[in-house]
Amino acid sequence: MTTKIVFPLKRLGAVAPRNAAEIEDSNWFLGCETLDRDYADFDQYKEYLRPLGIKYLRFQGGWAKTEKEQGVYDWRWLDHIIEESVGRGLKPWLQTGYGNPVYPGAGGENLGAGMPLSETGLAAYERWVGKMAARYADKVFDWEVWNEPNFGDNKVNTPEITADFNIRTARIIKEIQPGARISALALGHIDIDYVERFFRYLHGHDACGLFHNVTYHDYSYNPDGNKLAVYKMRQIVEKYAPGLILRQGENGAPSEGNAGGALADYNWSELSQAKWDVRRMLENLGNDIQCSVFSIAEMQYTGNGPVQKKNAKGLLKTDAGNKVTGCKLAYYAVQNVTAVFDNTLERIKDASYTHSLAEGDGNRYWISTDRSIAVYGYRHRETKKRVYTIWKDDAIPGDDCEMTFLDFAFAGGGFEDPVLVDMITGGVYELPAAQWSREGTIDRFRRIPVYDAPVLIAERSLIPIA
């Protein structure tokens, strides 16, 4: 796809994508949701999974699709998905939702549904969870309880009911698979009171240790615009469950306006979608939050759920029959992120802004503007070579790619052969001597083009270049 992004620098090449098999581990997860309701087709997009460079895939277990008659379980559809994924070296992250209408009081089978509450419904749900955990005990090691219990401010799924439901689900899985990594909560939007009551209940029942991480879904038009809410949520988690990992369990932007689901009220394009996805990924990484991209492919929402039209957040285009018709710009942009940012890098936690940078300032940095610019630093765990991510973070991503030219200085950078990298197109550019110099332990960069999508100032050896 042709973009309007132009850098006035010599192009050296482009970021070379890395297959998931080439990456030991990373911060990234990929949404493969709604297969339980046939809104997407796994076989149509499965060949696009490994080339994207993400190992962990989020699936929904689909109780209602598996047990259409009481006591009769047809696992064939889910067996196929799990086996195909594992066979490709990918790691399923399986969610225990939704409910099942074949049992009275067993909850609904769509987004925003109430959880099983009746004695009969809960017993049937627990049987299904136990059978599923046992069936995939040697293939699935990551689990999640339900999905968005507070969607639409659902009045049935109170924080206490949700916490109790999480506990009973986790205990079933842990009994079968003691080493299971279980995600708690799957919050639909950040509600601080909901989080507080949920964790107070877990803590009061000595159940926080059942969980490996807590997930939340927070769709904000500006992908950098929810930091305060996330910070408040993190404070609550740390109060009740110190060390519990925070995971953005589902997030993405559509590639067109007025599409189904969140963020519909904006004139999105493939370019602004790509900017949103990459900014959210790198903002999460820069704040030690695991990140799941929603989703691999567009989904055709039908049935009796709250969304009744195509959800255009997919990285792949699909037609009305869920056949993949092509890759969006966001697919390639996400590839660029996964190719560079894996577990060989560590965040420089004390990289922070100062108005006046001087020798001996540790890992601080300076910028020639007082506008809001996102800057995060990373270094290779072995070579200690560095990469900095930079973008304008004060607005919703748009189609305007006008550059602002800024000066930067980084203490302790130790650059030897720095390059500029555009995360949207993957372009790698030379930084000539006129734009880079070193004064003691401070690296200074002049007239660096910056816009509303991430660019990198990186040591060349850290970038796989094609």
The total number of structural domains is 2
CATH superfamily of the largest domain: Glycosidases
Question: What CATH architecture label of the largest domain applies?
Answer: Alpha-Beta Barrel
Main sheet specs:
8 strands, parallel, barrel
> Low-confidence parts lasting 5 or more residues at pLDDT below 50?
none
- In which order are the strands of the major sheet placed? 2-3-4-5-6-7-8-9
Question: Can you tell me the CATH class of the largest domain?
Answer: Alpha Beta
Helix content: 10-25%
Extended strand count: 23
CA-based gyration radius = 23 Å
Backbone structural class = alpha/beta
Mean pLDDT: 96
Number of helices: 10
Distance between the termini: 18 Å
What coarse outline follows from CA principal-axis ratios? Answer: globular
What share of the residues does DSSP label as strand, in percent?
15-25%
Q: The CATH topology of the largest domain, please? A: TIM Barrel
InterPro entries: GH, Glycosyl_Hydrolase_39
GO molecular function: hydrolase activity, hydrolyzing O-glycosyl compounds
Protein name: Beta-xylosidase
